[in-house]
Design a protein that fits this description.
alpha/beta, 17 helices, 14 strands, 6-stranded antiparallel beta sheet, 34% helix, binds iron/sulfur cluster, 4-stranded parallel beta sheet
Length: 445
């Protein structure tokens, strides 16, 4: 998943305007004879850098002048009168992301095997992707032009990796000097302009935990509700990141963090009406705790960062159960197959599916796939690789295999180690599907 939206950056050179990749038949764009391969250079005289610019500059406008560089090389100027809200019917190329200028101790790029695909080592740091997809940025190298763009185009919320409000600690973690690490003025400028921020702390034992963490939470909570939430996620060390300045996250460490932060959360809930500072699911599971209640997570502000995913899964499972009570699955006996997941979530999934099997006659098996590619400390399903699945194939039972969709590259049926799903399926000798929860639930209709 962390490869999401960065591929174009390593395969394309930045060019003028934004490229049209598709035109909906019978749409306004088709009427204007726009085609895939054309580039929109300007809207009403203003340069277009990407599809966000196009969206921003055309939004709410009914009379427009487009400057288009046709794929034939011709330049067209098109005057348009459109109905309010009328869609163009255009699809555009992905944004070419900007690269970060940090040297974080824990950067995921250092955790990749030496032969990993180049796209896995791309360090994106882009406020546009932060707005569009919730990618975190550190703001250490945001330019004046980017800052103005965030404010002018209201690219809110922004997701900011704060890690620590203590400057020395932040600078140490990011591998930059303190001046660069200091983003307080930048954050204030965004907040004063009405841009909301969700913050993140990658928790590194002995570096930004304990008092430093508590101060970080307090400093950020002082800006609530403009700073909406803080996600505290544990450092994940693969077997390739052997930086001696980093200490492994252990179950005992997770236990300490929970004991330390639970009273802080309680206090925040009393004062702010929200938990505000959320611990990653991984912290609870590795400490052997059950995850907090639904109430704890509110509207799940940081679910994409692994905060509340397990609770949300329980909720979805309960809904599915109630639906099946009313309308039991018609072909339950035929649902005999294996669901693959990471080692952290496997016991929970196993427990839920055993109950489902007993009640409704299905025959789902759960296999916990050990991550040998990145190392056994990486336990989440989203980082599972094809080679890991093959290594676990002796445990697969039944007539089909289901793997988590999150383990695939966002736009292709390919895994982090480069293995294609079709090749994996061939090696397993069974039908293999990559599904999310809703798709899995649909099998039981
Ligand atoms: S900000 Fe840090 S963790 Fe993120 S890509 Fe850059 S170096 Fe890596």
């Amino acid at each position: 998943m962390y490869e999401f939206a960065v591929t174009p950056a390593v395969t394309q050179i930045r060019r003028r305007g934004v490229e049209v990749t598709d035109v909906t038949p019978a749409s306004l764009a088709a009427e204007l004879e726009l085609e895939a391969g054309d580039r929109i250079i300007k809207v009403n005289g203003r340069a277009v850098r990407d599809y966000l610019d196009f969206r921003f500059q055309t939004g709410g406008e009914t009379e427009l002048v487009l400057n288009v560089l046709k794929k034939t090389g011709e330049e067209w100027e098109i005057e348009i009168d459109r109905d309010e809200g009328e869609d163009f019917g255009l699809a555009f190329e992905n944004i070419v992301p900007r690269q970060c200028a940090n040297e974080c101790l824990f950067c995921f790029c250092k955790g990749n095997p030496p032969d990993a695909r180049p796209a896995l080592s791309f360090r994106d740091e882009d406020v546009r992707l932060s707005f569009l997809y919730g990618n975190y940025t550190t703001l250490t190298s945001i330019t004046e032009q980017e800052m103005r763009r965030v404010i002018e185009q209201r690219l809110t919320p922004q997701y900011v990796s704060v890690h620590a409000t203590d400057l020395k600690v932040r600078a140490h973690l990011l591998g930059v000097d303190e001046q660069r690490a200091d983003i307080s003025a930048k954050m204030r400028r965004m907040l004063d302009a009405g841009i909301e921020i969700h913050a993140q702390v990658v928790l590194c034992p002995g570096i930004n935990d304990g008092e430093i963490l508590q101060r970080t939470i307090c400093d950020l909570a002082a800006e609530y509700p403009r700073v909406k939430s803080v996600a505290i996620v544990p450092l994940g060390l693969t077997r390739y990141n052997t930086d001696e300045r980093l200490t492994h996250v252990t179950p005992a460490f997770c236990e300490l963090v929970i004991r330390h932060i639970t009273p802080v959360q309680r206090d925040l809930r009393k004062r702010l009406g929200t938990t505000f500072a959320f611990l990653g699911d991984e912290i609870y599971l590795r400490a052997g705790h059950s995850v907090p209640s639904r109430r704890h997570y509110g509207d799940y502000p940081q679910i994409e960062d692994g905060i509340g995913m397990v609770r949300s899964f329980y909720e979805d499972f309960q809904k599915l159960w109630r639906r099946l009570e009313q309308r039991p699955p018609r072909y339950a006996q035929q649902l005999n197959g294996t669901i693959l997941t990471g080692t952290l979530f496997a016991p929970i999934l196993k427990d839920l599916l055993t109950r489902l099997n007993e009640r409704f006659g299905t025959c789902f098996h759960v296999v916990a796939v050990k991550n040998q590619y990145f190392g056994s400390e990486i336990e989440v399903a989203g980082l599972m690789t094809g080679t890991d699945i093959i290594a676990a194939c002796h445990a697969i039972k039944g007539d089909f295999v289901i793997m988590p969709r999150a383990a695939l590259k966002s736009d292709e049926a390919i895994m982090l180690d480069g293995m294609k799903v079709e090749d994996l399926q061939q090696q397993l000798g069974l039908p293999l599907s990559a599904l999310n929860f809703d798709e899995l639930a649909a099998m039981l209709s």
